[in-house]
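INFO batch 0412 | record 1 of 1 | parsing
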Amino acid sequence: MKFVGSKILAICMAVALLGSVALAQGPHGAGREGGGLFGGPMFDMMSDYLNLSDAQQTQIKQIMHSVKPAMEPLFQQEMQNHKAMMQLIMSNSFDEAKAQTLAQQSASIHEQIELAHAKAAQQAYQLLTPDQKTKLSEFLAKQEQRMQEHMQERGEHQAPPDSQ
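INFO prediction complete | emitting tokens
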């Protein structure tokens, strides 16, 4: 049962990674040369690592371009919500009800972004060959192991809470 859970986690991570390759910079880098939603070092690194064909690269970029119209307004909403929360934090009085509303809105926006991202990443994942899928799964397993080690180290090095 643990193997099945690990396999599902690896697939979910693969989907997220493939999508994040193209969406990593969000709207913030959209105008920069070699960056933005559809290029830059992360896409190039994963493309090289997985040895994506030109056709695969083109198809993945097309998938990511197809979600761009739906993602941009969500990124804008997310940014506006963040600004509103920062204004609330820096105000002279804290309105907990307003903070809760903003937090709920942020969670909803984030959920929509993640869902669109996962759908696009799943489409991109389907373009991979079995060997590329295996290679990606191995890469993600190593990343997961590094993250677990990092979390364990972090947990061991944190100071205990003050008991005074």
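INFO post-check: DSSP finds five helices and no strands in the chain.
INFO record closed
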